[in-house]
Automatic annotation (TrEMBL), chains A, B:
InterPro entries: 6-hairpin_glycosidase_sf, 6hp_glycosidase-like_sf, Bac_rhamnosid6H, Glyco_hydro_78_N. One of its GO terms (molecular function) is catalytic activity. PANTHER family: ALPHA-L-RHAMNOSIDASE C-TERMINAL DOMAIN-CONTAINING PROTEIN, C, PUTATIVE (AFU_ORTHOLOGUE AFUA_3G02880)-RELATED. One of its GO terms (biological process) is carbohydrate metabolic process. Gene3D superfamilies: 1.50.10.10. The lineage of its organism: Eukaryota, Fungi, Dikarya, Basidiomycota, Agaricomycotina. It comes from the Eukaryota. Pfam families: Bac_rhamnosid6H, Glyco_hydro_78_N. This is Alpha-L-rhamnosidase six-hairpin glycosidase domain-containing protein. Residues 30-171 form the Glycosyl hydrolase family 78 alpha-rhamnosidase N-terminal domain.
Length: 546, 546
């Protein structure tokens, strides 16, 4: 890397550092002590009952436990009093060893982690073991957790005493305001909604906002439980929501600068994620769609904030991403998922966690979508659009590349007979392929967009979305195609089913038909407050529910 | 309790508080990394080999572990650096969960605690589980531990990285000076010692001093690992050693005031132990011999320090203990172990952990020994000796009580034919019974003392001592009876065998023939640095080895 490049990156990181927000705190007391039991009617399998609204447990001995319910999700710290209740005249004569489990949802505090079988590290499990030597003590758990429930399990005291947990307090943290945006009013909503639907939509809105807030720390974290990192795909959605809900532009700006300052390689390819602590660090992977979506994120930011200076500062970072992928298009401008990018780097395409999804048409569409954002940015910022070598031709102007890619997409992936976009030699129909085609403006008419989305949504063979991230883009495409009714129906169905499952924040992964499914192989590895699930609030406002 | 009594106790606690020492610190680096293996020749079953004198571990993955050897025992805190060593380009992408085990001896770090079977709480086990989120980090373990070895076991990282432990530092704590007393010289020693014996005695002396130092915190703790409390029986021996080794009188004074300020009941019966934290608290039990030995501890203190004022301030506390036990003597002045004390309190007699020991003659002798201390104190302080009701007679002068009890002891427990003191209807011969008889001055001649001790020491049926506490009093009695050779032989044999087993500090319980025996049912519940084992240094100086 040249000296000049290094200086430029260092400057980007300085800007990011200067924008690091001071976190706001809020002290929360528990609603009370709950008892839990298995429940066949509950989709996650458990229900809780408040047995005491005191902030104090009964005396716990042996292997006894108590669960406090803080009545909602937060990201933050826990502190509590621990008292020794002596059985006779002897004071507490040994330390107390205590396991504390932080639950985003009931399953976290109702189920053992012993048979954890996810392929990601068990060190993400939200439990800690502490030892208390002196009683009474006020204990402050130094690590941050994401939780609604806190379970205290006595691992050992002595035969001489039991313990009582008293006055647990959560210090909630966020860089967002604590004040929620105005609740949905439906005053200007075009369409019929039942009272129950309105109630559900208000709840969905409120849970979206909580999800967003709890992920807004000193960066937009993907999830405050795990992995607490800044990912471009999540950032794009969170930032959009934060502009809308909190008029917060600086956190997005900070995050854009962090990515710009921490490229994946010397040529400026962006990382899929960056690490914030202990010092900002580049992530170890790059995702094709994520690095392209940086341009969209920058465009969103410039349009929302009006901050042209940042736009110009970061334009080259955004614009250069396509350099790494232009050669993935063959001479017929068909996107080759298996092609090797620059420097023999194996290309990774995300789109969704769905393992069955064939991603060529979606990735092709994402390229168009992002190139359009670069073009719009160049116009907005009054800078020259970049030119690329593509399809065997060198130094092509961006406008004509976009036009050619749109044309090629229609040619390669549109199944005119069925009125839907398909992928692979299997001609697979999927939400992903059609949502992104519509968002990229590939269909020639609104009717074509609507038809493609309807087929993809209704065909029983269609590959559906696994992540809320893709569910968002499906709804985004519905709205783009004028299918507001479908968007609303899908929000009610999908995010509504999370609410019915007890969500106080929206989950990283959710399949209402398989509530325990996990992309990691174990429910306990999932995050239950996740950035890319926070968008219904934004979608509902775009649907006129504000 | 009367207002006046309460005021008096509060004043005692104020004096104790004013004497709370500031702890001295010393920063210790490890000698290196050790590897351990089972060893049939080692009495504790393990041996260690230094494999690297670096202060850094290799990269640990999976369930790997590293053991650092700090080259000696200390009480204190641990801090260390933890670095993540990434396997590829991805930084550490998950927290690290780490188990840290603090070993006083190799067994602590070589053996699993999983099948712990002691009847005292497993919360005393010297291990902790921590989670580290950011790398590199300097970790400070806030709890105090007692250790020579530190084992770090990776419980989980992620597949992306391993960890390295670097620069572990122990902050050792004590209220004693770090400077050892002058080593043994043997210049004025009367007798023959081989070079090996001198080497062993010097080592015993040094280990005694370390044991004492590591127990000297803001009170004389019985053991810094467990239970970290102040017990009268331990205090008496520690204080004597601290006067001799460190000319420290204030810590003993503080401890004497703590006991005086925290009586077991309103009548002023003393607790066997007191708790120092979080605020001084009375212990939940009283031991007959311990409460009586308070007077001896006070006498030792006054004689060593010359502090008559404290002597007078605490004289009544010491002198009144016998009021609770005088009625335990029947009309023939035979001590009844099963008699009930004041307020129907079940009397507990300690003497030793040995379960087979019948304690009547030892307890009887301890009463005499302690009453003599009260008498000597009254003379030294020029205060009136107390009078007691005993043997059905009221208001007896102390001198005559002592005389009568000595006479009764001889009558009830001396087996003239065998030349030894015996206990119970079984006429049990024991170290305890004879050592205390000699220390109480019961035998009529030096020859009788010597004979009794020799029989008790040599008779194969004799009940031997289990705790180093009783081993001390046996040696004390040998010296008292002019059997210096036996005392020295016994120190070499008993404390020497601990050294041979690898002791860097002397153990709470030790039987060279059963190295894994424990009064608690599991070796891992034992303390391996224990106050009542620290006396050889004092005994050796009394034997003329200084």
């Amino acid at each position: 890397m040249t000296q000049a490049s290094e200086t430029r990156l260092a400057k980007f990181l300085q800007v990011a550092e200067s924008l690091k927000p001071k976190l706001r705190t809020r002290l929360d007391k528990p609603v009370g002590v709950v008892e839990v039991e298995q429940c066949l009617q509950a989709s996650m399998g458990w229900k809780a009952r408040v047995v005491s609204d005191d902030s104090v447990s009964k005396t716990l001995v042996g292997k006894e436990q108590v669960i406090f319910d803080f009545g909602g999700h937060r990201t933050g710290h826990l502190s509590f009093d621990i008292e020794a209740i002596k059985h006779g005249i002897e004071p507490a004569d040994a330390p107390c060893r205590l396991k504390i489990v932080f639950g985003e949802i009931l399953n976290d505090v109702c189920e053992s982690f012993e048979n954890y079988s996810a392929w990601i590290s068990p060190s993400w499990l939200p439990d800690e073991i502490i030892n208390v030597d002196d009683f009474p003590s006020r204990v402050h758990i130094p690590r941050r957790h994401a939780f609604r429930y806190v379970k205290f399990c006595v691992m050992s005291t002595s035969s001489r005493y039991g313990i009582r947990i008293k006055d647990p307090v959560a210090t909630a943290l966020t860089s967002a305001p604590w004040q929620d945006p105005a609740p949905l009013s439906f005053e200007h909503f075009q369409g019929d909604l039942t009272a129950d639907q309105k109630t559900m939509l208000r709840k969905i809105d409120q849970v979206s906002i909580t999800t967003l807030r709890d992920c807004m720390q000193t960066v937009f974290e993907d999830g405050p439980r795990r992995d607490r990192r800044l990912w471009i795909g999540d950032l794009r959605l969170q930032a959009l929501c934060a502009y809308d809900a909190f008029q917060d532009f600086d956190l997005a700006k900070r995050c854009l600068y962090l990515f710009a300052g921490l490229p994946f390689n010397d040529q400026g390819l962006l990382c899929a994620c960056v690490y914030e602590k202990p010092v900002p660090l580049a992530g170890g992977n790059s995702l094709v769609d994520y690095s392209m979506l940086y341009a969209v994120t920058l465009l969103d930011y410039v349009k929302a904030s009006g901050d042209m200076e940042t736009g110009r500062d970061l334009f080259d970072t955004a614009a250069r991403q396509f350099r790494f992928y232009a050669s993935n298009f063959d001479e017929e401008l068909r996107y080759d998922l298996k092609s090797e990018g620059v420097d023999g780097l194996r290309l990774v395409h995300f789109v969704d966690w769905q393992p069955k999804l064939i991603k060529d048409n979606a990735e092709h569409a994402i390229m168009i979508y992002c190139l359009k954002a670069i073009l719009e940015l160049s116009q907005l910022l009054q800078v020259n659009p970049p030119r690329f070598d593509i399809g065997g031709k060198i130094d092509q102007p961006l406008e004509s590349i976009i036009e050619s890619l749109v044309h090629a997409h229609r040619m390669h992936y549109y199944h005119a007979q069925r009125g839907v976009f398909v992928s692979g030699i299997e001609r697979q129909i999927s939400w992903a392929g059609n949502a992104w085609a519509v968002l990229a403006g590939v269909p020639e008419t609104v009717e074509q967009s609507q038809e493609a989305l309807r087929v993809a949504y209704e065909d029983p063979e269609s590959i559906v979305g696994m992540t809320p991230y893709l569910h968002h883009y499906l709804c985004d495409a519905f709205i783009e195609a004028g299918l507001q009714d479908l968007a609303l129906r899908h929000i009610l169905k999908y995010w509504g089913s999370m609410i019915e499952a007890g969500a106080e924040t929206f989950f990283e992964a959710w399949n209402p038909d398989e509530p325990r499914s996990s992309p990691y192989g174990d429910l306990h590895a999932n995050s239950f407050c996740h950035a890319w699930s926070c968008t219904p609030s934004l979608l509902l406002r775009r649907l006129g529910c504000a």
